[in-house]
Every structure is written in structure tokens, then in C-alpha cells.
Amino acid sequence: VSEAPNILSCSHCPAGTYSTESGATSSALCFTCDPGSYSESFAASSASMCLPCVAGKYTTSKSASSSSLCLSCHAGTYSTSLRATSLGACFFCSPGTYSTMFGADSNEKCLKCI
Questions:
Q1: pLDDT at 11
Q2: What is the C-alpha to C-alpha distance for residues 108 and 114, in angstroms, rounded to an integer?
Q3: Alpha-carbon gap, residue 13 to 33, rounded angstroms
Q4: What stretch or stretches form a coiled coil here (predicted)?
Q5: pLDDT of residue 22
Q6: Mean per-residue pLDDT for 47-76?
Q7: pLDDT (average), residues 57-84
Q8: Among residues 108, 88, 79, 113, which one has the least CA distance to residue 98?
Q9: 30 with 42: CB under 8 angstroms?
Q10: What is the C-alpha separation between 98 and 102, in angstroms, rounded?
Q11: DSSP code of 78?
């Protein structure tokens, strides 16, 4: 993306964004990754380069530039969803079960109480 006419250098769209435009003339053509996803790549050329937060994690952030911005579900909860966008995607372990794990990706991580 070039910020001014007659400039021969290009600037990359920052991590957490992408542009599908060839010959873009403004950073306004760098689109943010959707919440629930992130991109560590500079100069990403499509939305498919925005990777999903894995099951057990979520992000509310647009333009997340690192997987570390995908937050873990709390202990006692789990999420099977990819691209989760809120803590609401994390479900409580069923009654009679528990989990001390942060970022649990299935209800199988919830253990039976003894």
C-alpha cells in the first residue's frame, strides 16, 4: 500500500489486517481480520490468511496480530468452537464434573468428581 502518489515504495498492511487490492494507494484498503481470528503476517493478501483462534480460546479483538491475543476459556469451562468471539463461547463443565485446565477444547477435559 502506497501512502502518496508518485512514491515508488510500498508499505505492507500490518499484521492483523489484509488487502485484496492490487495497486492500493492507501492503508484504508487494509481490512481488519474478523473477531475470533488473527494474522501474524505482514502484507496478507486475503481474509483466508486470518487464522481462527483454536477451540478453547476466543478473541473479541478486530485486527488481532498474534495468537497470544486469543484468550483461554477459564478453568471449569470449555469451548469446541473455532473463531470464538467472546467468553460466552465457553461452556461450563456439566454438574458432577470439573476442570482445572485453562483453554479446554472439549467437555472430555471435564473430569468426574470423586
A1: 85
A2: 16
A3: 12
A4: none
A5: 85
A6: 96
A7: 96
A8: 113
A9: no
A10: 12
A11: E
Question: Which CA distances in Å does 82 have to 35, 36, 66?
Answer: 11, 8, 16
Assess contact for 78 and 107: CB atoms under 8 A.
yes
Distances (CA, A) of 41 to 3, 11, 17: 20, 13, 8
The C-alpha cell that represents 90 in the structure block: 465457553
Residue written as grid cell 500490518: 14
Q: How many angstroms separate the CA atoms of 67 and 71, rounded? A: 9
Q: Which residue has the cell 465457553?
A: 90
Residue whose C-alpha is closest to residue 37's, from 11, 23, 18: 18
Taking CA atoms, 5 is separated from 2, 8, 21, 26, 84, in Å, by 7, 8, 16, 10, 40
